[in-house]
Every structure is written in C-alpha cells, then in structure tokens.
Amino acid sequence: MAVAKIIYATNTGNTEEISEILEEAFEALTVEVERIEADDATAASYEEADICVLATYTDGDGERPFDLEDFYEELLDEDLSGKIYGVVGTGDSELYPDYFCQAAIDFDEAFAQTGAKKAAEVVKIENAADDEDEEALIEFVKTLVAAVG
C-alpha cells in the first residue's frame, strides 16, 4: 500500500481544511496517509512516504510561512529520489496579485531539487476551497496516486 505524507501550514484554517480534503481523497483511494502540521514536521518526515505533499499559504509579499522556513531549508538538502511530490497553495490574488501562491511555487522548485518526481501541477486556491477547488484537489490526489503506479 502506498503511503502519503501531507505537511501543511495554516494561518486562517484554509490550508488545514485543504489538507483534510487531501487526506480524505487519499483514504478514498486506499492510500495510507498522515497529515503533519508544519510545527511538527521536518524534511525527514517524508522518508517513509511514497507520495510527498506540501500545502502552504503565502504570507504578505510572497513570503513562506514562518513555521515552514526551517523546513524549506532542510528540504533543499533532502534526497527524495524515487518519491512522487505535489504542492498545493492558498493565497489572495486581490490583495497580493504579484505574489499569488508564491510560497507554493517556491516549494515546488525546492522539491524539484530533491530528486523527487513531480506528478501534478501546483494547485493554487483563492483563500478557502470551494466545491470546484475540492474537485481539483481530488483530481490532484488521483494524479499523484496514479504516478506511484
């Protein structure tokens, strides 16, 4: 059975809700899944995973969340060869049009340096997930699971 690890950072609760949607979608596909809040995560948290997922919000002018800064630096040094990854981001395009979901883009680029295989494009969500976003998240999970083979 494939194992997925979802690491998430949340400020308003939007990204936590998204991590729960992802968890349910993995469970529906009989994938063993663990959600880990950013404060409790290290890049080594992905060692036992087949599928590595990161869900983050973007702070201010494109900054990564404070509680993911150390994680980001650790991730750059990880070897995740043979693993599948995907990134989900939330943001506010009205307040920060130039930096919409920038933290998710940063993490996508960091994962690319780890040797992991990108299986799905970054999912960018405006604030809280609506029904359409939930469908996109379910398709995102299906794509990740299919990539494990």
Provide tags for this entry.
six-stranded parallel β-sheet; 149 residues; single chain; Rossmann fold; globular; 4 helices; alpha/beta
Structure description:
This protein is α/β, with parallel strands linked by helices and 149 residues long. The protein has a single domain, classed as Flavodoxin domain (Rossmann fold). It has four helices and six strands. It has helices spanning 14-28, 69-75, 102-112, 131-148; strands at 3-8, 32-37, 51-57, 84-91, 117-118, 123-126. Strands 1, 2, 3, 4, 5 and 6 form a six-stranded parallel beta sheet that branches. α2 links the parallel β3 and β4. α1 (14-28) packs across α4 (131-148). The longest helix is centred in the C-terminal third of the chain and has 18 residues, at 131-148. The relative contact order is 0.20. Belongs to the flavodoxin family. Pfam families: Flavodoxin_1. Its cofactor is FMN.
Brief summary:
The chain contains 4 helices and 6 strands. It has helices at 14-28, 69-75, 102-112, 131-148, and strands at residues 3-8, 32-37, 51-57, 84-91, 117-118, 123-126. The longest helix has 18 residues, at 131-148.
